[in-house]
Amino acid sequence: MPDLTPAAWTCPLPLRDYPHVVMGHGGGGRLSADLVEHLFLPAFRNPALARLGDAAVLPPVPGRLAFTTDGFVVRPLFFPGGCVGDLAVHGTVNDLAVSGATPLYLSAGFILEEGLPLADLGRIVDRMAAAARAAGVAVVCGDTKVVDRGHGDGCYITTAGVGVVPDGVTLGVQQARPGDAVVLSGPVGNHGIAVLCVREGLEFETRVESDTAALTGLAAAVLAACPATRAMRDPTRGGLAATLNEIAAGSGVGIEIDEPAVPVDDEVRAACDLLGLDPLLVANEGKLVAVVPADAADHLLAAVRRHPLGTRAAVIGRVTDQHPRLVVARTAVGGRRVVSTPVGEQLPRIC
Questions:
Q1: Of 108, 135, 165, which residue is a domain's last?
Q2: How many folded domains does the chain comprise?
Q3: Contact, 142 vs 92, CB < 8 A?
Q4: CATH of the domain at 120
Q5: Could you tell me if 241 and 283 are in contact, meaning their C-beta atoms sit under 8 angstroms apart?
Q6: pLDDT above 90 for 110
């Protein structure tokens, strides 16, 4: 792994003489070229990127292409368990993975604020490159722009991703059927609470860390264990509530969940109680929801629990023909409540 610290950036232009991002780093001239040569190329090293063409020219692949894009504006840039760099990889890779695709390639567009320490940019790119390698994807093209000081929050990243969907895999929120089981891969709410705590300076006895992770392997395990899986989603913004409502609305069915069966870490629950937040509405960046035929639920659950990202997976509910397009939770005291999609962002700037 190349050393991405500024002290290691040497000839032909000593970038360490520029400890912060300056407007010239986005101007398309020598400073831009040196940023690419000394930072981005060593980090994302691959043949397609090394050619530095106006577009990455890639070999043909068998199967159907999946293509997605996302923007990442999280504040602060670094948070417990991750940073904007690995988050930008995980977010796009996961959108492909839960679509049934094997992620292959990413693009990366950086919007940098003048004055951002180059050491911070190096750490971000380092984490991003490590996340891409772990997820089995290559960053094959990109772009860098610099905006005036005070017109950004340091670093925004936009990633686009391409993957390939194998024959026989067809997933969609329109395919849930009454009687299906709803499986969740692990505790919810960690990412949103982790970002909120560091942003607002909140401290609890146990530090909450983001769950940001690539779901590539876990999604593949789901499809291997249950090829008849109806739908997969990663519950990010809007949390588990938004994801389940999207499935209910897309399929015209109702979903009932057993609220005590939804795993929530104690420290996340304590933070939510203190702040008046519903953990079902708090964002995640490394969780997966799958809707599967009921007779496959136990087998799938066992397979998911064997994966490192799914050890606390649970069957949290079922699809029903009652109350179409609504998600209803059975509470710990035996009551029932409607779980609605949040109207806006419960926690803004968390991804």
A1: 165
A2: 2
A3: no
A4: 3.30.1330.10
A5: no
A6: yes
The set of residues, in sequence order, having a beta carbon less than 8 Å from that of 214 and lying 6+ positions away, is 89, 90, 93, 94, 97, 131, 134, 135, 286
pLDDT digits (tens, 9 = 90+) for 252-307: 999 999 999 999 999 999 999 988 999 999 999 999 999 999 999 999 999 999 99
Phi, psi for 154 (deg, rounded to 5): 95, -65
Same domain, 137 and 212: no
Query: Do 231 and 139 share a structural domain?
Result: no
Distance CA 152, CA 148 (A): 8
Pairing of β 327-330 and β 336-338: antiparallel
User: 51: which residues sit within 8 A by CB, 6+ positions away?
Assistant: 57
Instruction: Kindly tell me the burial class for residue 10, based on how many C-beta atoms sit within 10 Å of its own C-beta (0-12, 13-18, 19 or more).
Output: exposed
C-alpha torsion 323→328→330→334, nearest 10: -60
**Residue owning tokens 């599967």:** 292
- In contact, 225 and 290? CB cutoff 8 Å: no
Q: How far apart are CA 84 and CA 8, in angstroms?
A: 23
Q: 3-class DSSP state for residue 25?
A: helix
